Amino acid sequence: xxxxxYKVRLVERLKIKIGEAKNLQARSxxxxxxxxxxxxxxxxxxxxxxxxxxxxxxxxxxxxEFQFDVPRHFRxxxxxxxxxxxxxxxxxxxxxxxxxxxxxxxxxxxxxHWFPIKAVDADSEVQGKANIEIKFEPVYNNRSRSNYxxxxxxxxxxxxCRDLTLKNGACDPYALVSVTYTNGKRVSKRTKTRKKxxxxxxxxxxSFNSSEDSDSETEICELLVSLWHDTPGMxxxxxxxxxxxxxxxxxxxxxxxxxxxxxxxxxxxKNRPFLTHSTPPGTRLxxxxxxxxxxxxxxxxxxxxxxxxxxxxxxNLLLQSIHTQPITATSVYILGEIINKVEIAQxxxxxxxxxDKVVPIIRSLATVxxxxxxxxxxxxxxxxxxSKMMDEAMRLIGLQYLHKTLRPTLEEIFNEKKPCEIDPTxxxxxxxxxxxxxxxxxxxxxxxxxxxxxxxxxxxxxxxxFHNLKECAMMYFPNNKEVRYSVISGFIFLRFFAxxxxxxxxxxxxxxxxxxxxxxxxxxxSKTIQSLGNLVSCRSTQQVCKExxxxxxxxxxxxxxxxxxxxxxxxxxxANTSSPQIIENDKPVTLKExxxxxxxxxxxxxxxxxxKQRYFKLTTHNLxxxxxxxxxxxxxxxxxxxxxxxxxxxxxxxxxxMFQIVxxxxxxxxxxxxxxxxxxxxxxxxxICQTNANRLKKYHPSAFINGExxxxxxxxxxxxxxxxxxxxDSNNYHMTLDPERDLQRIHSLVISHIQPLEASIKLLEERGxxxxxxxxxxxxxxxxxxxxxxxxxxxxxxxxxxxxxxxxIGDDNYLLASRMNLDPNLMLRCISSEATVx
Length: 838
What we know:
Layout: E1 9-22, E2 35-43, E3 46-50, E4 54-57, E5 61-69, E6 76-83, E7 93-101, E8 112-116, E9 129-139, E10 151-162, E11 173-181, E12 186-190, E13 201-209, E14 220-229, E15 238-246, E16 257-263, E17 293-305, H1 312-319, H2 331-338, H3 341-354, H4 358-371, H5 385-397, H6 399-416, H7 433-452, H8 460-476, H9 483-502, H10 516-535, H11 551-556, H12 560-573, E18 590-599, E19 611-619, E20 622-626, E21 635-638, E22 644-647, E23 658-662, E24 667-671, H13 675-689, E25 698-699, E26 704-705, E27 708-709, E28 723-724, H14 739-752, H15 754-767, H16 771-799, H17 824-832
Antiparallel strand pairs: 1-5, 1-17, 2-3, 2-4, 2-6, 6-7, 8-17, 9-10, 9-16, 10-13, 11-12, 11-14, 14-15, 18-19, 18-24, 19-20, 20-21, 22-23, 23-24, 25-28, 26-27
Helix pairs in contact: 2-3, 3-5, 3-14, 4-5, 4-8, 5-9, 6-7, 7-10, 8-9, 9-10, 15-16, 16-17
């Protein structure tokens, strides 16, 4: 198979933790100098996530983390800092923002950085690109026919634009084409307005004389194409971006700019230079650093994923670890030693899960760790490879179990918002502590009961892992009666339930913004659950209560009744059986929910097919929507009725982020809040309907409007689809595994750690140790895959034209940026062995 014929996927993932801000400017007017602050995270100018509001402070702490697969190309990640309007009748004020270019993200990976907050003006908020053709054409000179071509005419064709910015939820764009002559004169012409679209098709041509009269040497020195949002009745239209091109001298050279794509730029000032092919873009921000700073932790990964066959050798080398003794001489163990355990654990677990080998690999790694421990209280206490793999395995395998167990009580906490603060230093009125204690005790008891009564719902795979851990711990510590419980409780309570309670948004247990009071309640509950996890372990006798106000809780839940219930729960989930009695489909588990806009399905004969906001809820049984959260469902769609889920062409309704849920009678058209939400809904629903026996093979990518399908122009509303549906691997929808992506992630990590790997090989060779052979195999497998990448990248470079849609003018080439930033020794090794690639 030729390398350039590979179907290579670009997979990007971004995780950003918004930590805190400091030194924000005080309000200059009003009764209070403090601010009510929140942040939003945007891809370019499209808001993706929003933090909770932190009230009455100039140094807010957020501590919120967002992670997602990047669904589209982008130029900037922007974090905006807002001051919330206290009257709720005005627009929130933007205090400033931090903007990070895509190609700079990797340089900030995994470490906290303080970024200065920059001021923002409306004209700097641009995104999108424009397709423009520029030509100088000779014109006939009336004075002398022999002078044909002495003058030239500038022809500018505005073809189309992509991904323009929405302004207050709307975009009615037009283009203004202006040329400036060397004598300072400017001539402007404009296109027609295209209504309700961020991807307008213009296809309009404008002509300009190269000089104002036949005898003048005046020529065109500059072309400016600016995009505007048409706002009739307003004093000014809204600026969307511009393209500025230097043309002076081109007409004498008989030169032309061919049709090309350009990135839109912020509005130029008088001193802004002309756009050249090397001009970097940017959001125009103030140079004033006095607006404060924002602490962020960024983790960005970019992988180009090849077909499965490219990774066969790497996969086989990893799977050999199960049968190799000792485990310390395997590729899996070595990867955990030379690479950050948090980074390597996730792809390893997902690969072994896909191959149904996660139980034996965790058992082998756990055996080594437990055998090296002399004190049972320290088992799995550190962030070792096996403990991080256990964390990831529980999260992947047990996500539905977690939702089934915790979600009902957490929703009760979110809805009731009862005060639960028991720290005297945090309470203004000491008389409320007793009431708060009662509220907190009720919630903790309810969650404790939910957990201890949920053993029959624990997934079989988790139970098998827990059984192996228990057996191993009992073998090495036969005289310790509590180790059979402590080795399990250290994972299920301290690393599974407690973190999910503390950060429910990270575990998809809620989509709501959590206020400070509720967040404090969750913190107190999580602390208590962690303490309960120690009740049945040998660590409990060594526990020291550092916070005296928590002592009353520990005593209330430290009774023999609670210990007995917990021991029973731990015995069941670690029983010697492939699976406890799993009760399926007894109660629907919520998988995803949130507000979206949907088009009426036309179920009523004379009903209007208008758009309305509804609250959607997807469970393991059905998809439903209601007027708002908690209200009775207006429509319930059984999962068996979902025949296909596909994105909808924007041209259908001139609305972005739309998808369709195809049912036997009709399609439901839905608009998600942003591109990330759209991807998550589509991916999850597609996974679910993948197992539907009646799933469609073809669908209509556009809607049926005005008596015809907009895609194939068929007048028959019941006509079969005209495009193939998307194909998705048929994994369990709650365990969306992508082994090729994970194998590529491991390859990327090995290449980025090639120097410590080489150093280890050299050291072990000198000592004559056999483990050196495994390291060499790992290195050679990594080089083989890297050769494939280099061949593919060269082919991609040859076929990528600067000025194409993939690499517009006015920005660093998206495909070529950071392309060859490799270690020189690695490059030489790859080049020397390249001839061996088949």
